[in-house]
Amino acid sequence: MQGILYEEPTVLQFALVTVVMGGWTAWRTGKSAAEGWSKYSTLIIYTLLLGVAIRFIHHALFNGSMLTLQYYIVDTVALLLFATAGYRYYRTKQMTNNYYWLYEKASPFSWRSK
After folding, report:
1. Residue 87 belongs to what H/E stretch?
2. Can you tell me whether residue 59 is helix, strand or coil?
3. Backbone angles phi, psi at 67, to 5 degrees
4. What is the pTM of this model?
5. What is the pLDDT of residue 5?
6. Residues 54, 16: contact at Cβ < 8 Å?
7. Beta bridge partners of 41
8. Side-chain-side CA neighbours of residue 25 (13 Å)
9. Which of 29, 66, 72, 110 stands 20 to 30 A from 83 (CA)?
10. Helix (H, G, I), strand (E, B) or coil at 39
């Protein structure tokens, strides 16, 4: 998979920067967008910008390429998964807490009408 999904010499560097650091930041970005009642399209824009920041960290710390579209897309898709999960988790929490007479949790990521 090295060279296709990540350019680092080991998968550990990819996991550390993109999955751990980037994933946590993307989760918190999703949380912030949900708590601010922002639309999902706003979260996508934030995640695209976060993808640039993660590519810069790869470049600055591990001498990776900065402007490679392939790796930017891989990083951004991984970040978007975390951001969407955080967004849906906190939006479900909001909807079921603020409108408890209308909605109940169906799962940690969705709600249904009562």
Report:
1. helix 69-98
2. helix
3. -110, 55
4. 0.90
5. 64
6. no
7. none
8. 21
9. 66
10. coil
